[in-house]
Amino acid sequence: MDNESRLDDPTFSRCSLGNGRWFWVTWADFESICEGHPHGTGVASSAVEAEEQATDSLTAAFGSGEFHQHSTYYARHVHRRMAVKNRASRVTENTGAAQLEFVYRDWCSDYDGKMGSSPYRVVKKTSTRVYVENRARSWEENGKAYHDVDTFVLDRQKLETEGEAYSRRQRNFFYTTPHEQRHKAPKPLPFVVFGLDAGCSEEDIHRAYRKQVKKAHPDHGGDAEQFKRLHAAYEEALKIIGA
Description:
Blueprint: H1 3-6, E1 11-18, E2 21-27, H2 30-35, E3 40-44, H3 47-62, E4 68-69, H4 72-88, E5 102-108, E6 115-125, E7 129-141, E8 144-155, H5 156-162, E9 164-167, E10 172-175, H6 179-182, H7 189-194, H8 202-216, H9 224-240
C-alpha cells in the first residue's frame, strides 16, 4: 500500500502507561491526527489487548479493512493532552500554581501546514520561576512501580506580563494561551454591537437590529445618538456580509 492511500485509512496507536496498563487511541484518518480529533480511546491490560480493542473499535465504526498502526509517540501525545485537561480542572494546592495551570508550545503540521498548540502542565511557581512538566515517566523495577516528573523552567515575569517566555532547554517559546486563541480573528465591531457571530445571516442582522432599535428610538423615549449609532452599525454589518 502506498503512503498516500494510507493517509485515508483508519489508524490507531498504543503505548505503555506502566503497571501493566496500555493506552490505545484510534482516528478516522491521518488528517484527524493532525487536527487533534481522535475517534476513540481506551486502556487495556496488555499490548495485545490494546491492539485488539483498537481494531475492534475501528471495525465497529468503519467496517472491516486494513488498519494502519502508528508509532507509540502519537498515543503518548493524546494521553498527555487528556491528562493535562483533567489536571487543569483541579486547583493545585500548596504550589502557587492555582491561577496558571498550563502553558502552550506551538507546532506546525508536516501534513498540511496547519498550526496548533500542545499543552504543558505547570507543576510549581515561585516568585521568579515557573516550573513546567516536560514529561512524566512510569516504570517498574524489582516488582515496584516508580514515577518521575522531568521539568523545565520559564521566567515568571515574562510569562505573566508578555504572555510568552523562551526556554533555552526546550529551544522554544511557551505561551499562556493556545495558538488558536492568540490568532483568532476578532469579530467586526458591528457584529459585537448586535451580539452576532461572524457567520451570521442577513436575517440575523435584521432581527438583532429591530430588537435594539425599538428601545433606542427617540419616539419611544430612547437616546437619539444611540439610535444613530445602531443604524450606522446596521448598515455596516450588511455591507460586511455583502447584502
